[in-house]
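User: For my dataset I need records formatted as: sequence, then C-alpha cells, nothing else. Please produce one.
Assistant:
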Amino acid sequence: MMSLQQQLRRQWLISLVLLMLPLMLLTDAGVRSLTSHYVLSRLQHDADSLLAALTRDEQGQWQVDDSRLGTLYQRVYSGHYFSVSGAAVSLRSRSLWDQSAPEQQLPPGEQRHWQQAGLQNEKWLSLAQGVSVDGTHLTLWLAEDIGPLSQQLNRYRLAALLLLAALLVLLLVIQRRLLRAVFARLQPLQQQLQALRLGKLDSLSSGQQAYPQEVQPLAEEVDRLLSLLQERVSRSRNALGNLAHEMKRPLQQLQLLCDQLSPQQQQQQSDALQQLQTLIQRELKRARIVGMSSPGRQLTVADDLPPLLQVLHKLYPQTRIEAHYDDNAVLPQDRDDLLELLGNLLDNACQYGGGEVNVSLQQADSTWQITVCDNGPGIAQAEQERLLQRGTRLDESGPAGSGLGLAIVSDIVASYQGTLTLQANEPTGLCVTIRLPLNSPA
C-alpha cells in the first residue's frame, strides 16, 4: 500500500505538471509569435525600402536602386531575398543567385505571409504584398532565413526544460524535507501509542500539547474509546465474577435440599450442581488471574507475569513455580488474552501437576514460544491426540486431570494464528507448548 508521503508527493507532482504544462505551451507560443512578428516587421520595413528603391530607367523599364537596400541583398545566399514581379516586370535580389523566387501575383493592397523551405536548407519566413506604382500593378516578395532564430528558440526550449527539471527536483527535495518535518511532529503520538501498548501510559492526554492541532481530536477520540472499552470489559468481568460469587450461596442451599431426595434423584441433582460449581470456579479464577482490564496493551513479561505468579502462589501455596524469561521480552499480542492464556495453563499445572511447575517464554525463529510443564500424572498419547482434534472442547470432554480452561487457551491461540501442542514431560508430567507469531495479526 502506498504511504501517505508517496501519495502526497505524487499528487503534488501531478498537480504541478498540470499547472506548468499549459504555462509552458503558452510561453512557447508567445515566444514564437513575438519572433515571427519581429521578423515580419523587419520584412515590412524592407518592403517599404524596396518600394522606395523602385525606379524607371531612360527606356521606362523598372529597376531597383541597390544602394538604398544595403549589402544584405547583394551577398549570395545571405538569408535575405526579394523579388518584384508584374506585367513585363521580373526583378530579384543578387542573393538569390540563379534561383527563382516563388511566383506570387497579389492585387494591390493585399498582403500575406508564410513559412517555407528555402535555399541551402534554410527556413524562410516570406512576405508578399500587392502594390500599384505609377499605374503598374506589382507584387513584392521578401524572405528572411529564420533558421538561426529557430535554432536559438530550440536552445531556449531545451534550457527552459532543463531548468524546469532542475526546479522540479529541487522542489521535490524541499517537499520531502517539509513532509519529513511535518510527519516528525507525529512522532510524539507514535511514542505515546507505543508507551500505551507497553502499559507505561493509561491515555494519550499527557502528550496532547506536543501533537499538531489537526491530530489532537484523533488522540482525544482514541482516549475516549480506550476508556469506554476498558469500562465495558471491566464491568463485564466484574459482573461475571459477582454473579459467580453470588451463586455460591443458592448452590449450597440446593445442595442441602438435595439430601432430602431419593438416592437416584440425589445423584442427578449432584451432577448438575457440580457442573454449575465448576463454571463458577472457572469464572472466579479468570477474574483473579487477569485482574484489571487493559485492552490494547501488549504483554510486558517482566511487569505482567510476576503479579500473576503471586496470585497463583496464594491459590496453591504447596506448588513451586519457576519462571524463565528475558527481562526485556514484550509479546505483541493483547495483554489480557495472554494473561488469561497463561493463567489457565498455570492453574491447570498447579492443580494437577504434582507440586512442580516450570514456565518459560522465549523467542524461537519467527515465533514466541510459551511452555508450561508439570510433574503430574500427565495425559496418555491417545488422549492427547483426541484432545487436539478440531472442535473438541478440551475442558469438557478431556480425561480426568486435564484441568479447566484448555478450551479457552485453544480459542485464544487460534485467534492469533498460533499452534498448541501437548507432549509428555520426562520422567512424568505434561508439557503444553504454544507458539505465537512475532507480529500480532491485524
